[in-house]
Amino acid sequence: MNYSSSISFFFFIILLVQLISISSATYNEQDQNKKSPLDVDLPVGDIGLDDSFASSEILQSDEWPSSSYYHRRCPNKNVEKIINKKVKEWVDKDYKIAPSLLRLHYHDCAVRGCDGSILLNNEGSERRANVSKTLRGFEMIDDIKAELEKECPETVSCADILAAAARDATVLLGGEYWDVPFGRKDGRVSIGKEADIVPMGHDNVTTLLEFFQSMGLEVSDLVILSGAHTIGRTSCAQVQDRIYNYKGTGKPDPSINEKYLNFLQRRCRWASEDAELDAETPWKFDNMYYKNLQNGLGLLPTDQLLLSDKRTEPIAKALASMPSFLYGQIFGASMKKFGKVNVLSGDEGEIRTNCNFVNSHSY
């Protein structure tokens, strides 16, 4: 076994031990509650990190986080079941919207935290920013919110809806279920210029690591959550420089697989076209993304860089070598952690009655 293989195996063991401890902690919590948080036709895994990630201020509150948050506030309705039913309806009509929900949740949490600010639809908001023009899924969230307002008025936040919908959409494409703690409040501020901080596939690894660390996340989270690119597509405008004029050389990126490069140059003649992020299984949530990287099939520059940086390479190789279901559980654990970034609770936010606008009494 060479040095690189030894390091990859080492990280594989670390990730496996982390997952086992996560599963054990979650099982103990469920055993105490004696009640499943979600009564729907989804795989039961409830994989998640313990709540130590949340700030001490949040932990001192009985408001957040809790998978049973809406059991007390909406006792005669299953909030998660309502959300899941709506997500299924939308994905059945257009399965390509599933990865869009995951991306929408990412853009929300990456700016100001997971507060639903990406959903606000006013002049100068994050939603109106140039980097948000290709985001989809807003109508689905509006549909879910309208249904929940009928069943349980002024109770379920838009931020919580988005977090649960992203999870359910991922599961519908083959991902593993993860427990979503609830109790997020909706933010009242959304500034378009702030959306420019969201990485768009052209940053170096150091910049990405700094961005994730600013949210309280780690190197492993960057690599694990990058695997969301195992589903969905992106605009060819994001890759044209890489396949035609890499770093101003007038030549393509030499790390791209030759046959894949040929395909991309035919597919992406026009910036307005789309390309699948995963060249092999673009609409199935698995760990093929990492295997693709080993074959020079990463689409975005930031994808392929994960395999060329010593800080991320061992983790990416470890994720490529494990079964897809195990990666799915690790991804869910990291998503649960990500979903707690800078969450608003108590009087810090509100429960919007319409996800597009702050409540009128907030002015």
From TrEMBL:
<dbReference type="GO" id="GO:0020037">
    <property type="term" value="F:heme binding"/>
</dbReference>
<keyword id="KW-0575">Peroxidase</keyword>
<feature type="binding site">
    <location>
        <position position="281"/>
    </location>
    <ligand>
        <name>Ca(2+) 2</name>
    </ligand>
</feature>
<keyword id="KW-1015">Disulfide bond</keyword>
<feature type="binding site">
    <location>
        <position position="286"/>
    </location>
    <ligand>
        <name>Ca(2+) 2</name>
    </ligand>
</feature>
<comment type="similarity">
    <text>Belongs to the peroxidase family. Ascorbate peroxidase subfamily.</text>
</comment>
<feature type="binding site" description="axial binding residue">
    <location>
        <position position="229"/>
    </location>
    <ligand>
        <name>heme b</name>
    </ligand>
</feature>
<feature type="binding site">
    <location>
        <position position="278"/>
    </location>
    <ligand>
        <name>Ca(2+) 2</name>
    </ligand>
</feature>
<dbReference type="InterPro" id="IPR010255">
    <property type="entry name" value="Haem_peroxidase_sf"/>
</dbReference>
<keyword id="KW-0106">Calcium</keyword>
<feature type="disulfide bond">
    <location>
        <begin position="236"/>
        <end position="268"/>
    </location>
</feature>
<keyword id="KW-0408">Iron</keyword>
<feature type="disulfide bond">
    <location>
        <begin position="158"/>
        <end position="355"/>
    </location>
</feature>
<feature type="binding site">
    <location>
        <position position="111"/>
    </location>
    <ligand>
        <name>Ca(2+) 1</name>
    </ligand>
</feature>
<comment type="similarity">
    <text>Belongs to the peroxidase family. Classical plant (class III) peroxidase subfamily.</text>
</comment>
<feature type="binding site">
    <location>
        <position position="108"/>
    </location>
    <ligand>
        <name>Ca(2+) 1</name>
    </ligand>
</feature>
<dbReference type="GO" id="GO:0042744">
    <property type="term" value="P:hydrogen peroxide catabolic process"/>
</dbReference>
<dbReference type="InterPro" id="IPR019793">
    <property type="entry name" value="Peroxidases_heam-ligand_BS"/>
</dbReference>
<feature type="binding site">
    <location>
        <position position="113"/>
    </location>
    <ligand>
        <name>Ca(2+) 1</name>
    </ligand>
</feature>
<keyword id="KW-0349">Heme</keyword>
<comment type="function">
    <text>Removal of H(2)O(2), oxidation of toxic reductants, biosynthesis and degradation of lignin, suberization, auxin catabolism, response to environmental stresses such as wounding, pathogen attack and oxidative stress. These functions might be dependent on each isozyme/isoform in each plant tissue.</text>
</comment>
<keyword id="KW-0964">Secreted</keyword>
<feature type="domain" description="Plant heme peroxidase family profile">
    <location>
        <begin position="68"/>
        <end position="359"/>
    </location>
</feature>
<dbReference type="Pfam" id="PF00141">
    <property type="entry name" value="peroxidase"/>
</dbReference>
<feature type="binding site">
    <location>
        <position position="126"/>
    </location>
    <ligand>
        <name>Ca(2+) 1</name>
    </ligand>
</feature>
<keyword id="KW-0732">Signal</keyword>
<feature type="active site" description="Proton acceptor">
    <location>
        <position position="107"/>
    </location>
</feature>
<feature type="binding site">
    <location>
        <position position="117"/>
    </location>
    <ligand>
        <name>Ca(2+) 1</name>
    </ligand>
</feature>
<feature type="binding site">
    <location>
        <position position="230"/>
    </location>
    <ligand>
        <name>Ca(2+) 2</name>
    </ligand>
</feature>
<dbReference type="InterPro" id="IPR002016">
    <property type="entry name" value="Haem_peroxidase"/>
</dbReference>
<dbReference type="InterPro" id="IPR033905">
    <property type="entry name" value="Secretory_peroxidase"/>
</dbReference>
<keyword id="KW-0325">Glycoprotein</keyword>
<protein>
    <recommendedName>
        <fullName>Peroxidase</fullName>
        <ecNumber>1.11.1.7</ecNumber>
    </recommendedName>
</protein>
<dbReference type="GO" id="GO:0046872">
    <property type="term" value="F:metal ion binding"/>
</dbReference>
<dbReference type="GO" id="GO:0005576">
    <property type="term" value="C:extracellular region"/>
</dbReference>
<feature type="disulfide bond">
    <location>
        <begin position="74"/>
        <end position="152"/>
    </location>
</feature>
<keyword id="KW-0560">Oxidoreductase</keyword>
<feature type="site" description="Transition state stabilizer">
    <location>
        <position position="103"/>
    </location>
</feature>
<keyword id="KW-0479">Metal-binding</keyword>
<feature type="binding site">
    <location>
        <position position="199"/>
    </location>
    <ligand>
        <name>substrate</name>
    </ligand>
</feature>
<feature type="binding site">
    <location>
        <position position="115"/>
    </location>
    <ligand>
        <name>Ca(2+) 1</name>
    </ligand>
</feature>
<keyword id="KW-0376">Hydrogen peroxide</keyword>
